[in-house]
């Protein structure tokens, strides 16, 4: 994975896009810290949060065949 500074990325954006099209990811840094990543479209699509199911969809996909019996014994008195 290639790392470039923001200034260099601005100057050579076409070359970075060409590299992404050929499958190479590039990290773009600002003041020495990673700020963004340029990745191929197929990888970006797989990593996109829009492609992941929501928490509600995930919970609804859990089979309901799991039967757990609730303990109905009275609670112990608490010494406060």
- Any low-confidence stretches, pLDDT <50, length ≥5? none
Structural class: alpha+beta
Counted up, domains total 1
* Separate helix tally: 4
Could you give the order of the helices and strands?
Answer: EHHEEHH
- N- and C-termini, Cα separation: 59 Å
Second-tier CATH architecture? 3-Layer(aba) Sandwich
Instruction: Give the C-alpha Rg.
Output: 25 Å
Query: What is the CATH homologous superfamily assignment?
Result: YefM-like domain
Average pLDDT: 86
How many beta strands in the DSSP annotation? 3
CATH class: Alpha Beta
Give the DSSP E fraction (strand runs of 2 or more residues). 15-25%
Major beta-sheet overview: 3 strands, mixed
CATH topology: YefM-like fold
Helix residue percentage: 25-40%
Strand order of the largest sheet: 1-2-3
What is the molecular shape?
A: elongated
Based on the model shown, name its key terms.
YefM-like fold, three-stranded mixed β-sheet, 4 helices, elongated
